[in-house]
Design brief:
Blueprint lengths: L1 H19 L10 H7 L1 H14 L3 H12 L11 E2 L3 E2 L14 H11 L9 H18 L6 H16 L7 H30 L6
Antiparallel strand pairs: 1-2
């Protein structure tokens, strides 16, 4: 009887955890619509901004580029002999596509021991934490392009300008900047409305 009850408990627990993983927003191209649909995401973005000084529009542009707002996404596996699924090219997972070792550095440094890469709140805090290191180096808080290049290459690689040999990456960083600019204009147009509804946070 105890065994059956324990199994039932495990099933309920798994279902509860699965239900906490949020689906992508219906209108990912509009930050106002995202935050209206995902009130918890708006709260997480504001908390990241308050703690790390990273603007919501840049945060959301990063997540759009990295994961398309998918909680558990991973890089596609490489193919062995052109057909057999093989290893993944990196250990990146989740909204932020943070690498395993970098995520561990974040947990160690912030004390956020139970942080999960499939959690939007933890991912927003991680991106803010990482961007803040760039601010401390002198990067502009509005320079989404440079912040993204540093995010992708690491600050050591960014200092060495390793991205100059990666034209594809520069194009991606340009897209991140462009999306950040669009999100910023949209955000300015709805920020008053969003603030009025803050008491709906849960």
């Amino acid at each position: 009887m105890i065994h059956k009850n324990f199994n039932s408990f495990l099933i309920i627990l798994v279902l509860a955890i699965s239900s906490c993983v949020s689906s992508p927003p219906e209108k990912p191209d509009n930050i106002c619509e995202i935050f209206k649909e995902k009130r918890g995401w708006y709260k997480a973005a504001l908390e990241s901004e308050k703690k790390w000084k990273l603007a919501p529009n840049i945060l959301m542009a990063f997540i759009y580029q990295e994961s398309s707002f998918q909680a558990n996404i991973k890089p596609e596996r490489t193919k062995l002999l052109g057909t057999i699924p093989w290893r993944r090219p990196s250990s990146s997972v989740g909204y932020s596509q943070a690498l395993k070792n970098t995520w561990q550095d974040y947990k160690d440094e912030t004390g956020n021991t139970w942080a999960r890469r499939s959690s939007f709140n933890d991912s927003a805090d991680f991106i803010g934490w990482y961007a803040n290191k760039g601010f401390e180096m002198g990067l502009s808080k509005t320079d989404a392009r440079s912040l993204y290049l540093a995010y992708h290459e690491g600050y050591g690689g960014f200092k060495k300008k390793t991205y100059r040999k990666k034209q594809w990456l520069i194009r991606v960083a340009d897209r991140v900047q462009a999306r950040s600019d669009i999100y910023q204009k949209q955000y300015w147009g709805c920020i008053k409305e969003l603030k009025k509804k803050r008491f709906f946070f849960f």
